[in-house]
Amino acid sequence: MDHYETSKVKGSNEHFKVINYRKAITAIRALDYEIKSEEMALKIPRVGKKLAQKIGECISFGRIKKLDHLNWDQEKSKTETLFRSVYGVGSEMATAWYKDGLRTLDDVRALPNLTKNQISGLRFYDDLLLRIPRSEVEQIGKVVEAAAHKLHPEIQSQVTGSYRRGKPDCGDIDIVVARPNIDNGDELFMIMDHILKDLINQGFLVDHLSLPTWEDSYATRPKHFKYMGICKLPGENQIHRHIDILVVPWMHLGAVLIYFTGNDICNRSMRLLASNRGMRLSDKGLFDNVMRGKIRKKVNEGRWVAGRTEREIFDYLKIKYLEPYEREC
Ligand code: DCP
Ligand code: CA
Question: Where in the numbering of this chain does the DNA-directed DNA polymerase X domain appear (predicted)?
Answer without folding.
Answer: 2-328
